[in-house]
Amino acid sequence: MSAATALGTLTLRPLDPLTDGELLHSWVTHPKAAYWMMQDARPVDVERAYMEIAADEHHHALLGLHDGEPAFLMEHYDPAHRELVGLYEPRPGDVGMHFLVAPTDRPLHGFTRAVITAVMTELFADPATARVVVEPDVSNTAVHALNEAVGFVPHHEILKPEKKALLSFCTRAQFTAATGVAV
């Protein structure tokens, strides 16, 4: 995927846990990434977690680049097999998603929204994707607003082992209506 935006070009490539592990460690342990729940992770813990994802047929991680430089992380998963098993009734075409924007001391206004739009565009590029599912922490109001901006509709709260989450869904039509991006 490659998307030219007013803020630059966003691309995705497969994450390599060995070569990207140290970089990811600096992102997921940063105070800004508290909702990623890896604050106390050691570099080997991060590498191991992403090695598990790389070996999992139902969970995938991609590194997002901004003008060729690492800038965000995208994960997508099959909620019928990971993360949400037993917590809701998955439909054919459901895809779960997580994303994390790297911490920076030079933030670009609108960058996070450009990232989530690119992530959603990537997910909907697969014709089998009918609906994207997210489960952010109920207290993460910033991400709830961002999700709504790209078409997510909150459904209900669920209790996951690690958090109370707000289960939300976004269909292709809702994404296009919210963003104007035809997918």
How would you characterize this protein structure?
This protein has 183 residues and is α+β, with helices and mostly antiparallel strands. 30% of the residues lie in helices and 31% in strands. It has five helices and eight strands. An eight-stranded mixed beta sheet has the order 1-2-3-4-5-6-8-7, sandwiched between helices. Strand 5 (94-101), helix 3 and strand 6 form a beta-alpha-beta unit. The longest helix is centred in the middle third of the chain and has 14 residues, at 111-124. It is globular. The relative contact order is 0.14.
Quick structural summary:
The protein is of the alpha+beta class.
Shape: globular
Task: Please state the average pLDDT score.
Answer: 92
In DSSP terms (H or I, runs of 4 or more residues), the helix count works out at: 5
Fraction of residues in helix: 25-40%
Question: Terminal Cα separation, in Å?
Answer: 13 Å
Tally of strands: 8
Beta-strand percentage range: 25-35%
